[in-house]
């Protein structure tokens, strides 16, 4: 299993564990809330029964003490209505809305009673009351503490989620910065280490040409091409971490030149072709952009097990002033679920692969050329198409009749 798969599995495991904790917290709080609901219901029913007896036994000092004690300890808001539906009494409501002075007299907020009664009817069924031959209905709603407790686990989960999201973003940013630092350091050190053997190889080829009179020898010429290629690679590595200089180039010519070099060093069973607009231009850093094309062509060639073809099609999007570069192979294809994963560092399907080529390609296209790269389409057993989107260096003005 490659490192990316391991990391993704750990993410899924931690996410599942966090969801499990959240669900357990919700269920535990819900059971506690239901217990409090039953206790408040029992308290309400007790209050109703005492209210029924209070008019008959209120002269009894002991019973009056019990009534007052129950009223003081009842936290549940209650409204009593008569048989006509009119509010006859209430208990536990906001005193600033039910009884407040205006112009030297006491008044109340009638809409407040209407809203409170509607809430009570929506939450619980009423209790029937019979007080000295008159019928009443008593309604109640959940206490403020019970309401808070009911929403507490969701608020708690929201706060935890925001904390985890913030922490994840912070750690990801820190890790990405650290990875970038490692990338830059490794690239520049590689460029430095390649400098000496390249200089030595250049000297040896010059010595061979003079000693064996091999100025026109094709093998020496190919060796020089490879040395030049090493110089280009060294230049690529040295540019990592620095802002590259982008210059105006014809995309077709840049890609065609690289394919001419690359196909000589690939199996004869793989056929190359380049089609599309030959005039479209874009701002490129050629050594870095060649690296992009090289990685895509290498992956395409590796995906072709026997015979096959690799084609590059250049398309101009006049409306958006963009250049589309489609690299298509007839290889084994990529599962749709892996379209994003192929660009992750460490992802590879080869036993000896490092899984860094497409990751580096994405960095070069997006960070250095302000473009995009993605898997446009792929089908198992038939092939894959990668699309690069670059900003055209030509500005188009619509023609007017």
Describe, in plain words, how this protein is organized in 3D.
The model has no long low-confidence stretch (mean pLDDT 82). α1 (3-57) runs antiparallel to α5 (144-211). β5 and β6 (134-140) form a beta hairpin. The chain has 401 residues and is an alpha+beta fold. The protein has a five-stranded mixed sheet with strand order 8-10-11-13-12. A four-stranded antiparallel sheet has the order 2-1-6-5. The chain has a two-stranded antiparallel sheet with strand order 3-4. The protein contains nine helices and 13 strands. Residues 189-394 form the Histidine kinase domain. GO terms for molecular function: kinase activity. InterPro entries: HATPase_C_sf (IPR036890), HATPase_dom (IPR003594), His_kinase_dom (IPR005467), HisK_dim/P_dom (IPR003661), Sig_transdc_His_kin-like_C (IPR004358). The chain crosses the membrane at residues 12-29, 151-171. Keywords: ATP-binding, Kinase, Membrane, Nucleotide-binding, Phosphoprotein, Transferase, Transmembrane, Transmembrane helix, Two-component regulatory system.
Helicity range: 40-55%
Contiguous helical run count: 9
The major β-sheet equals:
5 strands, mixed
The separation of the N and C termini measures 62 Å
Question: What structural class is derived from the secondary structure elements?
Answer: alpha+beta
Mean pLDDT, as a whole number? 82
Q: Flag low-confidence runs.
A: none
Shape, per Cα inertia axes: rod-shaped
Count of DSSP strands: 13
Quote the beta fraction: 15-25%
Strands ordered across the widest β-sheet: 8-10-11-13-12
InterPro entries: HATPase_C_sf, HATPase_dom, His_kinase_dom, HisK_dim/P_dom, Sig_transdc_His_kin-like_C
Domain Histidine kinase: 189-394
Keywords: ATP-binding, Kinase, Membrane, Nucleotide-binding, Phosphoprotein, Transferase, Transmembrane, Transmembrane helix, Two-component regulatory system
GO molecular function, one term: kinase activity
């Amino acid at each position: 299993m490659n490192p990316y798969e391991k990391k993704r599995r750990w993410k899924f495991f931690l996410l599942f564990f966090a969801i499990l904790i959240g669900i357990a917290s919700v269920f535990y709080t819900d059971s506690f809330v239901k217990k409090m609901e039953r206790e408040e219901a029992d308290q309400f029913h007790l209050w109703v029964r005492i209210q029924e007896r209070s008019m008959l036994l209120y002269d009894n000092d002991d019973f009056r003490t019990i009534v007052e004690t129950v009223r003081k300890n009842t936290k549940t808001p209650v409204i009593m209505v008569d048989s006509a539906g009119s509010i006859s009494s209430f208990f536990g409501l906001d005193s600033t809305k039910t009884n407040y002075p205006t112009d030297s007299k006491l008044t109340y907020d009638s809409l407040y009673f209407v809203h409170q009664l509607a809430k009570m009817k929506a939450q619980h069924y009423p209790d029937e009351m019979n007080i000295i031959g008159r019928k009443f209905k008593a309604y109640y709603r959940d206490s403020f503490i019970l309401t808070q407790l009911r929403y507490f686990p969701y608020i708690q989960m929201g706060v935890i989620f925001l904390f985890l999201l913030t922490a994840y973003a912070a750690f990801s940013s820190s890790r990405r910065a650290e990875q970038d630092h490692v990338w830059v350091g490794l690239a520049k050190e590689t460029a430095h280490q390649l400098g000496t053997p390249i200089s030595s190889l250049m000297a040896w080829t010059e010595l061979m040409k003079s000693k064996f009179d091999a100025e026109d020898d094709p093998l020496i010429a190919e060796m020089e091409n490879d040395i030049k290629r090493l110089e280009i690679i060294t230049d690529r590595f040295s540019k990592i971490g620095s802002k590259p200089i982008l210059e105006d180039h014809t995309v077709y010519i840049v890609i065609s030149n690289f394919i001419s070099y690359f196909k000589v060093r690939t199996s004869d069973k793989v056929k190359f072709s380049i089609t599309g607009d030959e005039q479209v231009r874009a701002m490129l850093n050629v050594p870095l952009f060649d690296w992009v094309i090289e990685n895509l062509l290498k992956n395409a060639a590796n995906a072709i097990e026997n015979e096959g073809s690799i084609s590059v099609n250049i398309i101009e999007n006049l409306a958006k002033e963009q250049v589309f570069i489609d690299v298509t192979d007839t290889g084994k294809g990529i599962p749709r679920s892996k379209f994003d994963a192929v660009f992750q560092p460490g992802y590879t399907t080869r036993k000896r692969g490092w899984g860094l080529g497409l990751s580096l390609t994405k960095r070069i296209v997006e960070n250095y050329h302000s473009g995009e790269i993605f898997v446009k389409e792929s089908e198992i057993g038939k092939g894959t198409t990668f699309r690069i989107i670059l900003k055209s260096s030509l500005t188009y003005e619509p023609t007017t009749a």
